[in-house]
Amino acid sequence: MNKLLKKLKEKGNDTEGALNRFSADENLYLSLLPYAIEEKTYKELGFSLEEGNKKDSFEYAHNLKGMLGNMGLTKMYDAICLIVERLRKGVIDEDTKKNYRLLIAEKDIIEEIISEKYI
Predict the structure, then answer these.
(1) Rounded distance, CA 114 to CA 119, Å?
(2) 3-115 falls under which CATH superfamily?
(3) Average pLDDT of 69-89?
């Protein structure tokens, strides 16, 4: 297993499950990982949450949920699931924003791991 994949797994991510979804193609997974982290939807979600736009926030969060689940980025996925559930109820509150901050903190950790060039 690739060093980057090992590091991601050590940080609690489901790399094995993700690789199953990618037909065990490590190169494909690793080529898509930066795109999953650099996705502009994170910022769009943050802006729409601050604006109180429940409809757009839900759309952004739901899209991220699918991608993060497929990528096996477990902590990020857990945070976005909590956001989606609040938004599904039509709620943007401090808990929603707290989970957004957790999502971004986990995203920053993954970005750091990628930048350390474990590949």
Answers:
(1) 8
(2) HPT domain (1.20.120.160)
(3) 97
